Amino acid sequence: MRAKQTGFGLLIILFFISGLFLFSCSKKEIKSEGIVSKPPTATEDEAEKAKKRVRIKEQEASEQALREKALREKALREEEARRLKEASDKAHFESEDIYFEFDQYILSDNAKQNLNKKAQWLKNFPTAKAVIEGHCDERGSAEYNLALGQKRADAAMQYLVSLGIGANRLSSVSFGEEKPIDTGSNEAAWAKNRRAHFVLK
């Protein structure tokens, strides 16, 4: 009887140990399977998509900033070119005088061609105003040359008005023989001094 009980006890102990062993193995297998394959969850997938959208937006913003910078630089270059051309045209306008024969204030064909160009420039720049200066050579009295210089300036002014330039944009003044461009006392110098000069305001 005691032997039977002992055998039965041993059997229970063996059964218990076997159960523990089996339970431990199955637990390890489950754990190991969990590490090997873990499918992505819906939350992780959405997070990845959100990151991708952020990256795309950042790239688009960067490209847009580069385009805007290029446009600004182009606009600056164009504005600088426009200013330089305007300054060059202004200098050209002022540097081209018209000339008169001795003791005359009648406009020659060359003078009219020059004034036609000046009229076009003034039309292109409608806010510009010009002073027309009348000059003479040294021959004749100071009073006579002042009067002649005024007639020369007025003749140029009236021609510009006839081409459509407002009289309120033009004014005339005479310096007579006071401001010669060439101080020589010969025909070449006198020819240069019989002129109307233009100054932009």
Characteristic terms for this protein:
single chain, 201 residues, alpha+beta, 60s Ribosomal Protein L30, Chain: A, 2 domains, four-stranded mixed beta sheet, 4 strands
By DSSP, the count of extended strands is 4
The rounded Rg comes to 50 Å
The pLDDT mean sits at: 86
The CATH topology annotation of the largest domain reads as: 60s Ribosomal Protein L30, Chain: A
Number of domains: 2
Count every helix, treating DSSP H or I runs of 4 or more residues as helices: 5
Shape type: rod-shaped
The helix-strand sequence is: HHEHEHEHE
Q: Within the largest sheet, what's the order of strands? A: 1-4-2-3
Q: Biggest sheet, in brief?
A: 4 strands, mixed
CATH superfamily label of the largest domain:
OmpA-like domain
By CATH reckoning, the class of the largest domain would read: Alpha Beta
Helix- and strand-based class?
alpha+beta
User: What is the distance, rounded to the nearest whole angstrom, between the alpha carbons of the first and last residues?
Assistant: 137 Å
Unreliable parts = 26-32
| Percent helix range | 55-70%
What proportion of the residues form beta strands (DSSP E)?
Answer: 5-15%
Multimeric state:
single chain
- Named at the architecture level, the CATH assignment of the largest domain is 2-Layer Sandwich
